[in-house]
Design goal:
This protein has two domains: about 80 residues; about 35 residues. By secondary structure, it is mostly helical. Helices cover about 70% and strands about 0% of the residues.
Length: about 120
């Protein structure tokens, strides 16, 4: 069961995603530049270089993960995993219903109660 997002939802998702990505990228860039200018001017001890390098390496790692997921097409239909999970849960309920009733007969429910 595949869910196809309407065009307006896809457009909203793209605009919102790019807005968040650009906003967080600008915030990261301004913070990094502030750290670097402080180090260059000598306002900060050399110990502050370690947090900047750590921050930068973590950001590069997350960016590489983002590029990997983008190249694998994980953002084409972000709602699909939800519907797949719900379908699997429904199938599992149907498969185990008889086992449950034979195992614990005192818990007989109507079929409508399970849905």
């Amino acid at each position: 069961m595949a869910h196809v997002m309407p065009a307006w939802e896809r457009k909203f998702l793209k605009v919102f995603s790019w807005t968040v990505l650009i906003g967080s990228g600008l915030g990261f860039t301004f913070k990094l530049m502030d750290f670097l200018f402080s180090v260059i001017r000598g306002d900060v001890e050399r110990a502050f270089i370690i947090p900047v390098v750590t921050y930068l390496s973590v950001a590069v790692g997350w960016f590489l993960i983002f590029l990997w997921t983008l190249s694998r097409g994980h953002y084409r239909d972000v709602e699909a995993p939800k519907y797949e999970m719900l379908e699997r849960e429904r199938q599992l309920d149907e498969e185990t219903r008889d086992w449950w009733y034979t195992r614990w007969p005192e818990t007989q429910y109507d079929a409508e109660d399970l849905r």
